[in-house]
Amino acid sequence: MKKEILIAQVILDHYHAKLDHLFDYLIPEHMQTLIQPGMQVTVPFGRNNRLTEAFVMSIKCRQKMDQPLKELAHISEEAYVMTAAQIEMVRWMKKSYLCRYIEGIRCFVPNHRTGKKKVIWVHCQLESEELAEQQIKMKRAPMQQKVLEALQEIRHAPLASLLKMTGAPNSAVKALAAKGFITISEEITRRNPFKDSVTTPYPEPRLTHFQERAMMLIRGHWEKKPEIPVLLHGITGSGKTEIYLQLIKRTLAQQQDSILLVPEIALTPQMVQRFRGRFGDQVAVLHSHLSEGEKLDEWGRIRRGEARIVIGPRSAIFAPCQNLGIIIIDEEHEHTYKSEQAPRYHATEIARQRCRLEKAQLLLGSATPSLESYHEAEHQKILLVELKERAAGGRLPQVEVVDLRKEAREGNRTLFSRSLIAALEHCLGKKHQAILLLNRRAFATLVMCPQCGYVAKCSQCDISMKWHRKERVLKCHYCGRREPVPESCPMCGELVSFQGAGTQKVEEGLQLLFPDHVVARMDQDVTRQKGSHQAILERFEAKEIDLLVGTQMIAKGLDFPNVTVVGILLADTSLNLPDFRAAEKTFQLMTQVAGRAGRGMQEGKVILQTFQPDHYAVHLSAIQDYHRFYQEEMQIRQRFLYPPFSRLIQVTFWSESEEAVAKAAHHSAAAVRFILEKSGYGEHLEEVMEPGPALIAKIENRYRYTLLMKSVKIPFHLMRKTVKYLLMDGRDRYISPMVTVTVDPDPRIVG
Ligand SMILES: Nc1ncnc2c1ncn2[C@@H]1O[C@H](COP(=O)(O)OP(=O)(O)OP(=O)(O)O)[C@@H](O)[C@H]1O
Ligand SMILES: [Zn+2]
Fold it and tell me: Where is the Helicase ATP-binding domain (predicted)?
């Protein structure tokens, strides 16, 4: 009988585009019983057969070989083996996000180069009486005496700390070991990211009536339809965290793993504290502030099932849980769940795929769900469960909208309206605290009228137009439309370009207004250092800070019952972003930050300052009417065919030469249109928009152009395939080597 030939199909551990495909290697006989898909191997590659790391994606059987093949060199036995589900996910990611195999693989198998950390321990071998005796005998060796004295209490200690504690030299320890009084051992220790923090227990409260009901609905639903996700829409302060805790407790009881995603872990120390307070060491955190060693160790604990609860930002969705029971995504609407680098995945999509493949359950939670998720709930693709009351008893804060146009007409051109100052005085008088939000992400220069609040918008896209200083025109960066800069406001009077003030200016202004109170600022400038977020939040919690000023990083998740006033200094900064999600983002941000007020027993008050008090996102967030906002916004999305009524693909071109980048963008658009026309979609070519300079037209001296495609009539997968075929695989024909191209299917940030 003829023997079968076993062939491993591998992906090389290389990021080069030309190597992004499967390579066949013969599996030598002695490996045939050992090898499995998902394993890490070493293969000879290239003309001089350099040994290269690779991953086995599949194994196939052949009767004969079509061509001579090289043999696998080695199986890395200690390395992580991807599961079948993970291999399938990698294939799916490649197709969906147009990334390379290795980029997908590296999400699941991090490139941990640091080995395990070894620590030398000293163990005392003497019983306490004996020890005391020896100590007396050792008068002439005071250093050895000191070491023994230290060990009397603690019995075991890492060598390094023992030496530090006693001031003794290493020779003293060696001498003691030679006498047999102590032993020395080398041990692998876990680098614990929580080693310096104290965990206070977080006792389980009695669920409120509404929480109880929500739990029942969720559990009942999953008993019948475990594959259908749940959207938990709970108002701010409604106690969603407690629902997460309880669901995870059940999962734990079934010996299964849980993943809880949070938008940004540094901003949510309270969440981690609560989970550690309830579940202790079974909680692992994965995030970018951990050292490589800490990351590796946490990863190992998860893989071995020692830590069954994983908390982390979007990348934690790839945690190596081997028996996944549930994934919970808190603040599911947050844009941080979308990766802005290859692979450009969305954590919620990955979660869905993982849950499907690993038979786990998925819960999305938010006070302001993304339109996409709510839309799915409306169409029964996910189950909507609502929490409409605050858990701790308080009510939602009252919101006062302040019209800054009126304030200006009446002579107050400062950043602080009279209502805001009055509210802050009242708040501080009662020894309460306040949060002030200034969203500074206003990098686009807009044309706006401070008299009436008018903003120049594109008539085709309903997006605010960007002012191009050099060319003296207004441009829509979606469709490329150009318009002259109006000399005067078409609504009333004079036009000025709008400039937002920074948080630092606000901080200074507040300190002048309230010289006897402590003002602090939290934004990216102050929090670049590791742990500084937490330090500020701890001071705020300890009431050492009265007024906290910040960017949107203070809007989320914070739960401080003593905060009774929230000031939103300028709602317009995010409202005027040239992004079709600007209204949605504003509504979410306003609602979230307003939700920080009055979470305890005292009533909260919110002052929302704006030039556009009549904008639906502003007044609907003021009355906290999510449902009406959803309906209004959906009408606009439908009229202009934005997601969820279309799917977008964004191609970005980068180059140091503006000419090259413009040429590449235009050639690419033409090529894509040409193919789509050939495929029979000639009537819908307007779905491939005119390319133009990106919202941030130049970064680090490299010019950026974007090409946006809006799939409505042209099928999304066809568009995606066309883009991949032309602009990625065949890019050399249309695009100069000076230009870098990135493709983002379903972009979250457009521009
Ligand atoms: N069953 C309960 N009984 C008493 N207090 C509760 C209960 N559940 C939650 N709380 C308290 O209610 C407060 C708000 O809860 P939590 O922080 O979970 O709100 P949330 O829904 O996550 O809100 P947000 O979206 O604003 O972050 C917390 O201080 C929490 O301790
Ligand atoms: Zn336009």
Answer: 221-387
